[in-house]
Amino acid sequence: MTTLPQELAEFPQHWADTECRGDVEELRRLLTDDFTAVGPRGFVLDKERWLDRYASGALVHDAFAWTEVAVRRYGGAAVAVGVQRQQSTYDGRDADGHFRITQTLVEEDGRWKLAAVHLSPTGAR
Questions:
Q1: CA 49 to CA 37: how far, in whole Å?
Q2: How far apart are CA 61 and CA 14, in angstroms?
Q3: pTM for the full model?
Q4: DSSP code for 83
Q5: Residues of 84-93 as b/e, b for ≥16 C-beta within 10 angstroms?
Q6: Residue 104 pairs with which residues in a beta bridge?
Q7: DSSP assignment, residue 20?
Q8: 8 Å CB contact between 25 and 124
Q9: pLDDT at 115
Q10: Where is the DUF4440 domain (predicted)?
């Protein structure tokens, strides 16, 4: 098994911590300019719409964890798969969830960034 570079190995936890805080500026640095997210109900968000959920105050996490993460590197790209659990509200409504999450990471200008994320609900709570 190939050892991952430290930044890549630590990226999943750093991303999860940043999402939990809703830190728009750090997320802006972690996402590629052409970032795309596919949400648990099939909706698609670009980088600005992803960030706006936090900037507007619409999305708030009380708890957010990404566990069972496996990262595989392919040259200047990597795929991370894990389980995301969140206790959240969106526009004041319950947004708790349990998802299988897949991330596509790319090395850009010497840093690892998130290019895409896809969330699939698992049905667990």
A1: 10
A2: 15
A3: 0.91
A4: E
A5: bbbebeeeee
A6: 79, 116
A7: H
A8: no
A9: 98
A10: 14-114
